[in-house]
């Protein structure tokens, strides 16, 4: 009976969602959705900064990540047609029922949380695996594609663990074998997050030589100049970027807002 009560409670909680989704809505393109998401995330970050819940450096890094996603967004995809109410209700019934059945079959509600010692041991094993990967990659011929791929994988792993210096170093090793503007932009972002503005500017200058019209590279180049204290150079770079962009560019509003915020 308890499980039936829980299932009924889940359905009751999902009922407002069903009513909302069943209403006719105006379908938005991907660009409009990207901009709306950016504005919401920017407002939330600004609010946390004003309340003192975020340090200025953390706020700047989070804002940079949001802007990176807007700049990397692709063109609009074809809009999807909204499904009927019957299909929606069927999904709302099947999903919680299926989840409950799977949990009763495979779940272990009485299983305690992993002790701290076990979590520390798992972290140590991950660290050992990373050390093995690094040693393996360093033993390869640096001119081989396998070595380059190894440095890329190692950089991804280090970035996920929040070790930006190690991630940037691994990606620089991959760039030394074969330079790619996109990877240079990713590495430059890490360097900017670490406050290594000169290193980021050097990477971006070389990347712009290979792809001078790339919006993300041009935006990051302006940001690197501003972080280095060259505000007018950064302002000029962003204004030139806007001048060369279409009015409906998905990242245009973000860059304009950053320009207005400059001193």
Descriptive overview:
With 263 residues, the chain is mostly helical. The protein contains twelve helices and no strands. About 2% of the residues have low confidence.
Uncertain stretches = 77-82
Euclidean distance between termini CA atoms: 64 Å
Order of helices and strands: HHHHHHHHHHHH
SS element count, helices: 12
Relative helix content: over 70%
How large is the radius of gyration? 24 Å
Strand content: under 5%
Decide which structural class fits the backbone. mainly alpha
Largest sheet: none
Q: Which term fits the overall shape?
A: globular
Mean pLDDT: 78
- What is the number of beta strands? 0
Highlighted features:
12 helices, 263 residues, mainly alpha
Compact description:
With 263 residues, this protein is mainly α. Helices cover 76% and strands 0% of the residues. It has helices at 2-22, 30-50, 56-72, 85-106, 116-139, 145-160, 164-177, 181-194, 197-210, 215-227, 231-243, 252-261.
């Amino acid at each position: 009976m308890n499980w039936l009560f829980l299932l009924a409670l889940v359905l009751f909680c999902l009922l407002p969602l069903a009513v909302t989704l069943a209403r006719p809505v105006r379908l938005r393109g991907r660009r409009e959705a990207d901009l709306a998401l950016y504005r919401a995330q920017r407002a939330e970050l600004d609010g946390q900064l004003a309340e003192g819940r975020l340090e200025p450096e953390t706020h700047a890094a989070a804002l940079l990540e949001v802007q990176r996603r807007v700049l990397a967004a692709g063109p609009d995809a074809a809009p999807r047609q909204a499904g009927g109410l019957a299909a929606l209700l069927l999904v709302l019934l099947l999903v919680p029922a299926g989840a409950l059945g799977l949990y009763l079959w495979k779940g272990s509600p009485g299983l305690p949380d992993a002790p701290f010692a076990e979590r520390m041991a798992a972290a140590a094993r991950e660290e050992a695996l990373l050390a093995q990967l690094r040693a393996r990659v360093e033993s390869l011929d640096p001119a081989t594609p396998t070595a380059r791929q190894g440095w890329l994988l190692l950089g991804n792993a280090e970035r996920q663990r929040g070790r930006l210096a190690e991630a940037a170093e691994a990606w620089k090793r991959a760039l030394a074998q074969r330079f790619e503007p996109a990877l240079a932009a990713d590495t430059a972002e890490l360097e900017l997050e670490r406050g290594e503005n000169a290193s980021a500017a050097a990477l971006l200058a070389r990347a712009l030589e290979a792809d001078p019209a790339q919006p993300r590279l041009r935006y990051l180049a302006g940001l690197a100049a501003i972080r280095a204290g060259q505000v007018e150079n950064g302002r000029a770079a962003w204004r030139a970027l806007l001048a060369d962009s279409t009015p409906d560019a998905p990242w245009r509003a973000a860059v304009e807002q950053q320009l207005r915020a400059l001193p």
